[in-house]
Amino acid sequence: MRRCRRARPARRxxxxxxxxxxxxxxxxxxxxxFKRRVGALWGRKGGGGNNRPGGNRGGMTPPSPGGxxxxxxxxxxxxxxxxxxxxxxIVQEGQVAVVTQFGKYKSTSQAGFQWRxxxxxxxxxxxxxxxxxxxxxxxxxxxxxxxxxxxxxxxxDENIVDMQFVVQYRxxxxxxxxxxxxxxxxxxxxxxxxxxxxxxxxxxxxxDFVLYEGRTAVASQVQTLMQQILDRYQTGVQVSTVAIQNVxxxxxxxxxxxDAVKAGQDRERQINEGQAYANQVxxxxxxxxxxxxxxxxxxxxxxxxxxxxxxxxxxxxxxxYEKSPQVMRQRMYLESMQEIFTRASKVMVDTKSNNxxxxxxxxxxxxxxxxxxxxxxxxxxxxxTLINPPVQTPLRGNVAPAPQPSGSSNSNxxxxxxxxx
Length: 421
Description:
By secondary structure, this protein is α+β, with helices and mostly antiparallel strands.
């Protein structure tokens, strides 16, 4: 090897004159020169420097203490600088960096150019807190790709519904440490919490409420209950949306459920019709009952008032009668006869007087007869009014003979022409 190394410079020198000494430098010679310099710092062999004048052929280069210290310092400085530079890192927008010291949580770094103590003292882990995470429960990708163990749920009226919904959530800005260290698999915890909350809410409602009018209320209750469960387990997750995509009876009983729905609709229709009829009849009957009650109250008040009035009148008459019985008896008689005569269609004549001329008020009699005819019902035989000839009625024990038709033997009868007058 040594002979070969000596021969190579000789060949280079041999080529040099031919190229006027301007040929390219030998790479091996440059590498050997660098090795000799490094070896001089560490006290190694010359490594090919025997061809130089005054070189120590085959011997050890004595180490230089100053050069060794400088070399160690440079190497140490480079190593420390590289180690310290490994602590620089960049946090992207929408992310946070969770810094741990010897595996324990230390701090949270926000977006920007950050530095921490290099590994193994400190380390960091990036967490995306702006990402909206979504997962599906009861189906995958489409409504046809159902996952029945997740979708089938029991209601409070012991019916089964096929529930398919979507949950969206993101991490809180200060929830990254909890997301990393408090649960083993936080995303799976969110899925399990969503199924638990949905089954609990659906289990407290009836099937009709879940299928029709209660979808929004069920989704809101599930979101609230999910957040409570995740906060209790310190997952650092904020639930954004719970959206029910589809809810229906199981396919195996869909036909029977449709029949039951139709029957329920018929029942509701008949109930509404009955309620409408009741709303029409009940007020009418109530009005009639109120009218009859008011009429009865009016009749009662009239009768009571008349009775009280008659009683008061009788009491007053009794007092006056006790003061003067004869006068009151005569007065009562005259008033009674006046009242009777004003309504009677017949004339009573007192024949005790010697007056042979009688006056018959035919106009009054006809007027009273017309009034009685108008008050009577049509077609009633007893209500027909007849103008009877005046009949003489006994008064005070004396009987006046009734007028006889012409040709009669009664001497007291008046002529027909005088009767007409």
